[in-house]
Amino acid sequence: MKKLFLLLLFACTLVGLPHTLSAQTETRPYWETSPEFASEDKDLVLNVLDSLALIKLPHRIYEELELLAVEKDLLSLKTSASGQWSLRLLPLPNGTPLLALIRTVNTPIGDSALQFYTPSWEEIKDSNAVFSAPQASDFIPASMSATDRARLEQLLYPLYLVYKWAPQGRLEVSVSTPTLLSDATREADRKLIEAIPHKKYQWKGGHFVLLNQ
User: Do residues 3 and 62 make contact, with C-beta atoms less than 8 angstroms apart?
Assistant: First the structure.
């Protein structure tokens, strides 16, 4: 009932607004067909997209549902107290978009999953040709001594990765370190953890290319 009231409230707010205020995001039809969310939640988000000129992001929509970011090819939502959902449309050489979805859980430790879908939301299970996820060894600086390297390998097990969309078709991947830092009692361990680099990728020619080794 509360959701119905919110829908009516949004509808009243939108009366008289010109069509040009509607959010110009190409993610809209894919949000409408997303199999993850209830139709009521979809409608609430769509109504907010239609009133972006009147609101400031981030914008709380309903309970824990919050609109975080909207761009031409990006839609990011907070879906729960600790969860985020971020869809980016990646152009393919044939002109169709590849749906790239980051799901992140922030507690008790940050952990993301990156999955790829066709425009009809069919999961691309064998996506290694599109993106090869970094391994723990990829986050260990080559300049480290053998002793420090062995210790950091221990600290990075198990490996929790956080994915984040960056401007201009870039993807940033980092190791979830807050828990590691809070548990590190030795100053030497803290220095090793703080030396862990972020990985940056650029979308190019239908796949992600690593920008920094």
Answer: yes
Mean pLDDT of the chain, nearest integer? 88
Q: Do the domain assignments include residue 131?
A: no
DSSP letters for 131-184: --PPPGGGGS-TTS-HHHHHHHHHHT-S--EEEEEETTTEEEEEE--HHHHHH-
* Residue 5 located in a structural domain: yes
User: How many domains are there within the chain?
Assistant: 1
Cα–Cα distance measured from residue 61 to residue 67, given in angstroms and rounded to the nearest whole number = 7
Domain carrying residue 9: 1-79
The whole model's pTM is what?
Answer: 0.85
The pLDDT score that the predictor gives to residue 8 is 40
User: The tokens of 210 are what?
Assistant: 């690593």
Whether 211 is covered by a domain: the verdict is no
Whether 157 is in a domain gets the answer: no
Is the dihedral angle over the CA atoms 14, 41, 32, 164 positive or is it negative?
A: positive
